[in-house]
Amino acid sequence: MDPFQQMTDWKRNMDHFFGEQFWDQFEGVLKPTIPQINLYQTDHELLCIANIPGLTNLDKIDIYVDYATLELRGTIDIGHRGGTIVKEEILQGVFERNIQLPFPVRQDKIKATYRNGLVYIQLHRLVSNSGHKNRVTVEQLEDE
Fold first, then answer.
1. Where is the SHSP domain (predicted)?
2. CA 111 → CA 38, 121, 125, distances in Å?
3. Residues 6+ apart with CB under 8 A from 68
4. CATH number of the domain at 34-77+93-126, please?
């Protein structure tokens, strides 16, 4: 019998017993997130370094920023074919990763570079016009 089929059957039985959300608690343990990242913060800037080996076409990675969320999409493919895998620690495949940032960032001041298998994403803090107040107009309603 196929060992992967046994694993699928086992997981289905566990899902039935514990509920389908059971595995979500173990996602980082059973399937580590890719790409791996480091996030560094200063007073007004963030630097996100993402580990994406083998990237030969920079159009194969998508980077999106929305207020305080950084989204990375792409594929990690180290390009080796042939042979039987004895040990596999370099995670590969399609990825989509959302990273919650510690503060909102500017949409107009983002720089991304790639060097030695690492993507460097520089982000700048969004500084609001806190001195500017918007006055709310109160509308008079007729008495009933």
1. 28-141
2. 16, 6, 13
3. 100, 101, 102, 103, 104, 105
4. 2.60.40.790
- The predicted-structure confidence for 17-61, as pLDDT tens digits, reads as follows 776 666 556 555 556 688 999 999 999 999 999 999 988 888 889
Residue 119 three-state SS = strand
Percent of the chain with pLDDT over 90: 39
Which amino acid is residue 105, in one-letter code?
V
Question: Which residues does 105 contact at the CB level (< 8 Å), separation at least 6?
Answer: 46, 65, 67, 68, 123, 124, 125, 126
Alpha-carbon span 64 to 121, nearest angstrom = 11
Q: Which tokens hold the place of 89?
A: 């620690």
